[in-house]
C-alpha cells in the first residue's frame, strides 16, 4: 500500500470525498433554488440595474450615430455659411450623451458591485453558519480542508461570475436583440438567412453546457483535494519535518496538483473549442450572407445599401456572442461551485434541533442513560446498551482502559452525537428535546484535545462565557490555579496564544481550557482527561479547586490518574462500552474487583 | 499574524515581483511565441474580414461581376475560418504554459513551505498561506494567460491608430495624442490606490480563510461550549470588513473605468468640432474628417477596456508579491553537509540557550546535559518549564540561540537535515496524525519498513487495536486521528517514533493518556527499545521517570540537578515537590491511600 501515490489515503467506511451525488437533475434544481433564493431580496435592485444599463448602453450606442449626424448634417450648413449652430448642437448632444453614459455607467458599476458583494456576503454567512450547525459526524467525514475549500475557492468562483459577468452579459444581450430586430426590418429574407445558425448555436451551447458541467465539477473536486492536503500538511508540519516526510508529501501534493491541472486543462480545452466554434459560426454566417446577399443584389432583389448595412450590423450580432460565451463559461464554473455549496446547505444536521424545544430554565444536572446503544460505524458497536443514572450534584469518576468508550459516553451527554437507540436524559428531558442554547448552558465538556483559538489568553478563557468581565476571567483562572502562570506571561492575560495556542506549552493550554470551562459555569461539567498534561503540583491545585467547584454541580470526570478519582463520590469502571463496576471509591477498593486492581497498579506506579 | 503582510510595498518592487516569475514561463518560450503570433495574425484576420465585406459590396456587387464575388466571397470565408482556427490554436496552445506556470509555482510554494522551519509555521496562519497557494496563483494565471495578451494588444492598437491619425492630419492627431495624457496620469494615480486596496482585499481574504480553518478544526470546542453564534459573529465581522473593502475597490474602479470611457468620447466631440472648423477653413476634406472620426471611434473600446485590464494586472502584481513573500523567505534552518557514518547517539547539550523571537528572557539558558549512547535520561520540570522546547532542539525543529547541541561530537547544525532527523525520532505530546491509512501514518519515518517491523512497533506501543479497525492497517483514520480514542492516538504516535528505529528516541510525555495497566505494558516494552537507543523521556509521573537511567531536573530554564530518581527524591526538595504524589498532602486528601 505504500506504493507510489495511491494507497496512502487508506480506506474509509464510505469514500466521503464529496457528498453523495444524487441524480444530477436534482443537483441543478437545488443550486437553482439557492440562486433564486440569493437573488430574491435584490429583485428590485436588479430591475433598476437593468434600466440603468439600458440607458447607459443606449447613450453609448448613440454616440457614433451622433458623430455621423454631426458630419452629415452639421458641416454642410456651416460650409454654406449658415453658421455653426447645428454643429454646436450636435457636439453639445454628444457631450451630454457622454456625460449621461458616464454617470449611468458609474451608477451601474457601483450598484451591481454592491448587489454582487451583498450576495457573496450572504452566501458566505449562510454556508459558514450551516457548517457550524452540522454535527460532528458530518465534520469527521467532510474534514476541515474541504470546509475551507467550500468557503474559499468555491465562493471565489461565484464571486468571479458576479463581478465580471452581469455587465457584459446585459450589454451583449441588448445589442444582439436590437440587432436581430434591425436585421429583420432591413430585409426579412436575408435576415432569416442570417439567423438560421441560431438553432445550431443553441445546440452547440447545450453540448458545451453538458460537457462543462462534468468538467467543472471535477475542477471543484480536485481543487478541494489540493486544499485538503495543503491544510493538513501545514497543520501537522511538526511531524512532517521531524519524520522527513517532505519528499513523500511533495510527491502526493504534486500528484494532486497535477490532477487539478488536468481538470483545469480539460475545462480550458473545452473553452478552446467552444469560443472559436461560436466565432466560426458567426464568420460562416457573414460569408453566407455575403454570397446570398450578393446573389440577391445581382438580381436586384436587395439594394446595395441594404447589403452594406446588413454586413455592418451582422458583425454587431455575432461579436457579442464572444462576450456571452465568456459569461457562459464563468457561469458554468460558478454553477459547479454553487452545486457544491447548495449540497452543503441541504445537508441536514445529524443532530437536529428540536422543532418544539422543551424549556429547561434552571438545569439541576441529573443525567440518565436509558438503554443507550451507540456505534460510530454500524458494524462496530461501541456502547452495546447502557443504563446509568447520575443524580444531580454527584461527582462521578469514569475510569477504564483506553478505547473503552469513556469519551464516547461523555460525547453523548454533550449531544455531539445522538444514540443509535435509547435515550439520554437531562433532568428528565430527552436531550433531543432541548434546544442548543439550553443544552450548552447546562452541559459543558472539556475535551481531550485542548483547542485554543487565535487571540489572547483572555479571549480564550472568555470563550466560555462571552459576556464575562476581565475580573471574572481572573477569578476563574485563580480558582483553578492558572493565574500565576498567566500573570507571568509577557502581556499577562493579553498575551497572544499564537496560532491555535502554539505559544503555550501543552500544560498551559490545558489550564486555559480548564479555566474556560470553569468560567462557563454549567450544571453538568465533563472533564475528559483535563489534567493529563499537568505536572503534579498543578494537578493538585486543580483538584483542590475541583472540590469547591464541584460541590454544587454534577460532574463526570474521566481520568487515568486515579488521584483525580479521590474527589469523586462514585466511580464507574468501563470496559468495552459497559459499566462493569459502580460504587463509592473506597467500597470498590475494598471489593477487590477491577477497580481495586487498577488502584493497586496506580499506587505502585507512584513509588 | 505574519509580521509584515500589511506592510505597504513600492509599486516598483511589485512590478519586479511579477517579472521575476517569468522563469516559470521559460520552458514554454516556443509555445509563447506561437501564441503571440497566432494572436496577432488572428486579430489581423478579424480586422480584414469586414474590409473584404466592404470590398465585395463596393466592387463585384455594384459591377455585377459574379466571378469576383465568388473570389472575394471565398476570401471572406477563408478569413473567417482562419480567424476561428487561430483562436482555437491560440487557446489550445495556451493551456500548457498557463497551467504549467500555475502548477509549478504551487509545487514550489509547497516545497518551500515544507522547508521553512516551525518558527515560520508558528507565525503564519494557514489561511494566509492557502490563499496564496490558490487564489493568488489563479489571479496570476489569469493575467499571464489572457490579461497580458489583451493589454499588449490594446496598447499596440492604441499606438498604431494614433500614429495613423497623426499621419492623416497632425493637428487633430496631436489632440488625440494629448488626450492620452490625462489617461496616463490618472492610471498612475489609480494604480497606486488600487494596489493598496487589492492587497488589502487579498489579505482580508486570507484572514477569512484563517477563521474558516479555525472554526473547522476547533469544531469540537465550539460545540462543547455551544458558541456557534460567537464564532459566527467573528466570521461575520471579518466578512463584513472584506465586504467594505471590496466595495471601496468597486467604487474606485467604477470611477476609473467610467473616466476611461468619457475621455475618448469627449475627444471625439472635440475632433468633430475642430475637424468641422478645419473643413470650414478648407484645411481638411469632408472625406478625411469622416475617416478620421471612424478611426477615433475605434479607439473607444480599447481605452475603455484598459481599465479592466489594468486592474487585473495590478491584482496579479500584488498576488505575485504575496506569493514571493513566501518564496523569498530564507529558511533559517538549513542542513549542513556532515554525516555520521555509524551514529552512536551520544547526545550533549553544551551551554545551550534558547530564546523565542521577541521574548525578553530566554526559555533555556546555560543548559548542560550529556546523554551517553544507550543511556536514557528523564527530563522533569514544571508545566511550561521548557521541556518540549529542549527536545525540539535536537532534531532542529528549533535552533539554539546560544551554545550547541552535539551528537557524537558533531554540532547538529553541521549535519544534513534528513540525516539528523533519521537519527532522532520524537513522539510528540500531541500525537499529530494525518487522515491517511494507519500504515502510512506509522511508516512516515521509514517508508521501507517491513511488515514484521511494523508489527513489532505496534506491539511495543501496545497499539494492537489497529488490527481490529474495519480495514486493519489500511483503515484511514480521521483528520488528526480524530476517529481514534485519545489513548489510541498517542500509542499510534509512539509506534511511529519507535518504528523509525532512531539512535535517539525522544518521548515527550507520551504516556499521559494511557490507563495504568496499558502504561505498564508499554513501559515494559519501551525498556527493550531504550536499551539500544539513547532516550530522552519527558515525564510528569514517577512511573515514567523510572524508564530512565537518570533524571535531569529542569527548573528556571536550566538543568539544576542530574541524578537517580531515588537520590533526587531524597535530596532535592524541588524534585520531591514535582514528582511525589504525597508531598505536602493534607490527610483528608490522602483518603484513598
Ligand atoms: N469519531 C470516531 N469514529 C469512529 N470510531 C471512533 C470515533 N471516536 C472513537 N472511536 C472508537 O470508539 C472506541 C471508543 O473510543 P473512546 O474515545 O470513547 O475511548 P476512551 O475510553 O475515551 O479511550 P481513551 O482513554 O483512550 O481516551 C475506540 O475504539 C475508538 O477507536
Ligand atoms: N512559540 C512560542 N513563542 C513564545 N513562547 C513560547 C512558544 N512556545 C512555547 N513558549 C513558552 O515557552 C515556555 C516553555 O514551553 P514548553 O512547551 O517547552 O514547556 P513544557 O516544559 O514542555 O511544558 P508542558 O509540561 O506543559 O508541556 C512556556 O512558558 C511557553 O509559554
Ligand atoms: Mg478518551
Ligand atoms: Mg511540553
Care to give the gist of this entry?
By secondary structure, chain A is α/β, with parallel strands linked by helices.
3D structure, described in words:
Chain A: Residues 367-601 form the ABC transporter domain. Chain A: Residues 48-333 form the ABC transmembrane type-1 domain. Chain A: It holds the Pfam family ABC_membrane. Chain A: One of its GO terms (molecular function) is ATP binding. Chain A: InterPro entries: AAA+_ATPase, ABC1_TM_dom, ABC_transporter-like_ATP-bd, ABC_transporter-like_CS, Type_1_exporter. The complex is a heterodimer of chains A (607) and B (593). By secondary structure, chain A is of the alpha/beta class. Chain A folds into three domains: 24-187 and 334-349, ABC transporter type 1, transmembrane domain (ABC transporter transmembrane region fold); 189-301; 367-606, P-loop containing nucleotide triphosphate hydrolases (Rossmann fold). In chain A, 64% of the residues lie in helices and 10% in strands. Chain A has 19 helices and ten strands. Chain A has helices at 24-39, 43-79, 85-133, 136-142, 144-186, 188-195, 197-235, 237-242, 246-298, 304-346, 406-413, 436-442, 457-462, 470-479, 483-487, 506-520, 536-549, 585-591, 594-606; strands at residues 367-377, 380-390, 395-400, 421-426, 429-430, 443-446, 524-528, 554-558, 570-575, 578-583. The longest helix of chain A is centred in the middle third of the chain and has 53 residues, at 246-298. The radius of gyration of chain A is 35 Å and the shape is elongated. Chain A starts with 23 loop residues before the first helix and ends with a helix. With 593 residues, chain B is an alpha/beta fold. Chain B has two domains: 12-196 and 254-328, ABC transporter type 1, transmembrane domain (ABC transporter transmembrane region fold); 347-579, P-loop containing nucleotide triphosphate hydrolases (Rossmann fold, 3-Layer(aba) Sandwich). Chain B has 19 helices and ten strands. Chain B has a six-stranded mixed beta sheet, sandwiched between helices. Chain B has a four-stranded antiparallel beta sheet with strand order 2-1-4-5, with helices on one face. In chain B, helix 5 (126-168) packs antiparallel against helix 6 and helix 5 (126-168) packs antiparallel against helix 10. The longest helix of chain B is centred in the middle third of the chain and has 54 residues, at 228-281. The two termini of chain B are 49 Å apart. The complex binds adenosine-5'-triphosphate (2 copies) and magnesium ion (MG) (2 copies). One adenosine-5'-triphosphate sits between chains A (140, 376-377, 382, 402-408, 448) and B (478, 482-488, 513).
Amino acid at each position: 500500500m505504500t506504493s507510489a501515490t495511491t494507497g496512502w489515503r487508506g480506506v474509509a467506511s464510505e469514500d466521503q470525498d464529496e457528498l453523495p451525488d444524487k441524480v444530477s437533475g436534482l443537483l441543478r434544481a437545488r443550486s437553482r433554488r439557492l440562486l433564486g433564493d440569493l437573488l430574491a431580496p435584490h429583485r428590485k435592485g436588479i430591475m433598476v440595474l437593468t434600466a440603468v444599463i439600458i440607458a447607459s448602453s443606449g447613450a453609448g450606442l448613440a454616440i457614433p450615430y451622433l458623430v455621423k449626424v454631426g458630419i452629415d448634417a452639421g458641416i454642410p450648413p456651416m460650409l454654406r455659411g449658415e453658421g455653426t449652430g447645428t454643429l454646436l448642437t450636435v457636439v453639445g448632444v454628444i457631450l451630454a450623451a457622454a456625460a449621461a453614459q458616464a454617470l449611468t455607467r458609474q451608477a451601474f458599476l457601483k450598484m451591481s458591485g454592491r448587489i454582487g458583494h451583498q450576495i457573496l456576503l450572504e452566501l458566505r454567512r449562510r454556508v459558514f453558519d450551516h457548517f457550524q450547525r452540522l454535527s460532528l459526524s458530518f465534520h469527521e467525514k467532510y474534514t476541515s480542508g474541504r470546509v475551507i475549500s467550500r468557503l474559499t475557492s468555491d465562493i471565489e468562483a461565484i464571486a468571479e461570475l458576479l463581478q465580471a459577468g452581469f455587465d457584459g452579459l446585459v450589454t451583449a444581450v441588448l445589442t444582439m436583440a436590437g440587432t436581430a430586430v434591425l436585421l429583420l426590418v432591413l430585409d426579412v429574407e436575408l435576415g432569416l438567412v442570417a439567423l438560421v445558425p441560431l438553432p445550431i448555436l443553441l445546440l452547440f451551447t447545450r453540448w458545451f453546457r453538458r460537457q462543462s458541467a462534468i468538467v467543472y465539477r471535477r475542477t471543484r473536486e480536485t481543487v478541494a483535494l489540493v486544499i485538503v492536503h495543503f491544510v493538513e500538511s501545514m497543520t501537522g508540519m511538526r511531524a512532517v519535518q521531524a519524520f522527513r516526510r517532505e519528499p513523500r508529501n511533495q510527491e502526493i501534493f504534486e500528484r494532486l496538483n497535477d490532477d487539478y491541472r488536468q481538470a483545469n486543462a480539460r475545462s480550458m480545452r473545452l473553452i478552446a473549442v467552444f469560443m472559436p466554434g461560436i466565432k466560426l459560426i458567426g464568420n460562416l454566417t457573414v460569408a453566407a450572407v455575403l454570397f446570398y446577399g450578393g446573389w440577391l443584389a445581382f438580381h436586384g432583389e436587395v439594394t446595395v445599401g441594404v447589403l452594406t448595412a446588413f454586413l455592418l450590423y451582422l458583425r454587431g450580432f455575432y461579436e457579442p456572442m464572444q462576450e456571452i460565451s465568456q459569461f457562459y463559461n464563468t457561469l458554468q464554473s460558478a454553477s459547479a461551485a454553487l452545486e457544491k455549496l447548495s449540497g452543503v446547505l441541504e445537508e441536514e444536521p445529524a443532530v437536529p434541533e428540536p422543532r418544539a424545544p422543551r424549556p429547561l430554565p434552571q438545569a439541576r444536572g441529573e443525567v440518565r442513560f436509558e438503554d443507550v446503544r451507540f456505534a460510530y460505524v454500524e458494524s462496530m458497536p461501541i456502547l452495546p446498551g447502557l443504563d446509568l443514572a447520575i443524580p444531580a450534584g454527584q461527582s462521578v469518576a469514569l475510569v477504564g482502559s483506553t478505547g473503552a468508550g469513556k469519551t464516547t459516553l461523555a460525547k453523548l451527554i454533550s449531544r455531539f452525537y445522538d444514540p443509535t437507540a435509547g435515550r439520554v436524559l437531562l433532568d428528565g428531558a430527552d436531550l433531543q428535546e432541548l434546544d442548543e442554547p439550553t443544552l450548552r448552558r447546562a452541559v459543558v465538556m472539556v475535551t481531550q484535545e485542548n483547542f485554543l483559538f487565535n487571540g489572547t489568553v483572555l479571549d480564550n478563557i472568555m470563550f466560555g462565557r462571552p459576556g464575562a468581565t476581565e475580573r471574572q476571567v481572573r477569578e476563574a483562572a485563580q480558582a483553578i490555579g492558572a493565574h500565576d502562570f498567566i500573570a507571568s506571561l509577557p502581556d499577562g492575560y493579553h498575551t497572544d496564544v499564537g496560532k491555535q495556542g502554539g505559544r503555550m506549552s501543552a500544560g498551559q493550554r490545558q489550564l486555559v481550557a480548564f479555566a474556560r470551562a470553569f468560567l462557563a459555569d454549567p450544571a453538568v461539567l465533563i472533564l475528559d482527561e483535563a489534567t493529563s498534561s499537568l505536572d503534579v503540583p498543578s494537578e493538585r491545585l486543580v483538584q483542590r479547586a475541583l472540590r469547591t467547584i464541584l460541590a454544587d454541580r454534577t460532574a463526570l470526570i474521566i481520568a487515568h490518574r486515579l488521584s483525580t478519582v479521590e474527589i469523586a463520590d462514585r466511580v464507574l469502571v468501563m470496559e468495552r462500552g459497559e459499566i462493569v463496576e459502580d460504587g463509592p471509591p473506597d467500597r470498590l477498593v475494598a471489593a477487590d474487583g477491577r477497580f481495586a486492581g487498577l488502584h493497586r497498579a496506580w499506587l505502585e506506579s507512584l513509588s | 499574524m505574519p509580521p509584515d503582510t500589511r506592510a505597504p510595498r513600492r509599486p516598483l518592487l511589485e512590478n519586479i515581483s511579477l517579472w521575476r516569475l517569468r522563469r516559470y514561463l521559460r520552458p514554454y518560450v516556443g509555445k509563447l511565441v506561437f501564441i503571440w503570433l497566432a494572436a496577432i495574425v488572428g486579430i489581423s484576420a478579424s480586422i480584414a474580414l469586414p474590409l473584404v465585406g466592404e470590398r465585395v459590396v463596393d466592387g463585384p456587387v455594384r459591377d455585377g461581376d459574379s466571378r469576383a464575388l465568388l473570389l472575394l466571397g471565398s476570401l471572406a470565408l477563408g478569413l473567417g475560418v482562419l480567424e476561428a482556427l487561430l483562436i482555437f490554436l491560440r487557446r489550445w496552445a495556451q493551456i500548457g504554459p498557463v497551467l504549467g506556470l500555475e502548477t509549478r509555482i504551487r509545487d514550489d510554494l509547497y516545497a518551500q513551505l515544507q522547508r521553512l522551519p516551525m518558527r515560520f509555521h508558528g507565525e503564519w496562519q494557514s489561511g494566509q498561506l492557502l490563499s496564496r497557494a490558490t487564489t493568488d496563483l489563479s489571479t496570476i494565471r489569469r493575467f499571464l494567460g489572457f490579461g497580458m495578451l489583451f493589454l499588449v494588444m490594446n496598447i499596440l492598437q492604441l499606438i498604431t491608430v494614433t500614429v495613423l491619425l497623426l499621419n492623416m492630419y497632425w493637428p487633430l492627431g496631436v489632440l488625440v495624442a494629448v488626450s492620452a495624457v490625462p489617461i496616463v496620469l490618472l492610471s498612475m494615480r489609480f494604480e497606486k490606490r488600487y494596489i493598496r486596496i487589492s492587497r488589502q482585499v487579498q489579505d482580508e481574504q486570507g484572514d477569512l480563510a484563517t477563521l474558516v480553518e479555525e472554526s473547522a478544526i476547533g469544531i469540537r470546542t465550539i460545540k462543547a461550549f455551544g458558541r456557534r453564534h460567537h464564532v459566527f459573529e467573528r466570521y461575520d465581522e471579518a466578512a463584513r470588513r472584506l465586504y467594505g473593502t471590496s466595495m471601496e475597490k468597486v467604487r474606485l474602479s467604477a470611477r476609473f473605468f467610467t473616466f476611461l470611457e468619457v475621455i475618448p468620447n469627449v475627444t471625439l466631440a472635440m475632433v468633430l468640432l475642430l475637424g468641422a472648423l478645419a473643413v470650414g477653413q478648407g484645411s481638411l476634406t469632408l472625406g478625411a474628417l469622416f475617416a478620421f472620426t471612424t478611426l477615433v471611434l475605434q479607439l473607444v473600446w480599447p481605452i475603455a477596456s484598459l481599465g479592466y485590464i489594468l486592474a487585473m494586472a495590478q491584482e496579479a502584481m500584488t498576488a505575485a508579491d504575496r506569493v514571493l513573500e513566501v518564496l523569498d523567505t530564507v529558511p533559517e534552518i538549513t542542513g549542513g553537509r556532515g554525516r555520521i557514518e555509524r551514529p552512536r547517539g551520544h547526545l550533549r547539550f553544551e551551554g545551550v540557550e534558547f530564546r523565542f523571537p521577541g521574548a525578553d528572557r530566554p526559555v533555556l539558558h546555560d543548559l548542560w546535559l550529556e546523554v551517553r549512547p544507550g543511556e536514557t535520561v528523564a527530563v522533569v520540570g514544571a508545566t511550561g518549564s521548557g521541556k518540549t522546547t529542549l527536545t525540539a532542539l535536537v532534531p532542529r525543529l528549533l535552533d539554539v540561540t546560544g551554545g550547541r547541541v552535539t551528537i557524537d561530537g558533531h554540532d547538529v547544525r553541521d549535519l544534513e537535515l534528513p540525516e539528523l532527523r533519521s537519527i532522532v525520532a520524537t513522539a510528540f505530546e500531541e500525537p499529530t496524525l494525518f487522515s491517511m491509512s494507519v500504515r502510512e501514518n506509522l511508516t512516515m519515518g521509514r517508508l521501507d519498513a517491513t511488515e514484521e517491523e511494523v508489527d513489532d512497533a505496534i506491539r511495543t506501543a501496545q497499539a494492537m487495536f489497529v488490527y481490529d479497525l474495519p480495514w486493519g492497517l489500511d483503515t484511514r483514520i480521521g483528520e488528526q486521528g480524530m476517529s481514534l480514542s485519545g489513548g489510541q492516538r498517542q500509542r499510534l504516535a509512539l509506534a511511529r517514533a519507535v518504528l523509525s528505529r532512531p539512535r535517539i528516541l525522544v518521548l515527550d510525555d507520551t504516556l499521559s493518556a494511557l490507563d495504568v495497566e496499558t502504561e505498564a505494558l508499554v513501559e515494559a516494552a519501551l525498556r527493550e527499545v531504550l536499551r539500544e537507543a539513547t532516550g530522552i523521556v519527558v515525564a510528569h509521573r514517577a512511573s515514567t521517570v523510572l524508564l530512565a537511567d537518570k533524571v535531569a531536573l529542569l527548573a528556571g530554564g536550566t538543568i539544576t540537578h542530574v541524578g537517580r530518581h531515588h537520590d533526587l527524591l531524597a535530596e532535592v526538595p524541588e524534585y520531591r515537590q514535582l514528582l511525589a504524589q504525597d508531598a505536602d498532602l493534607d490527610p483528608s486528601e490522602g483518603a484513598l491511600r
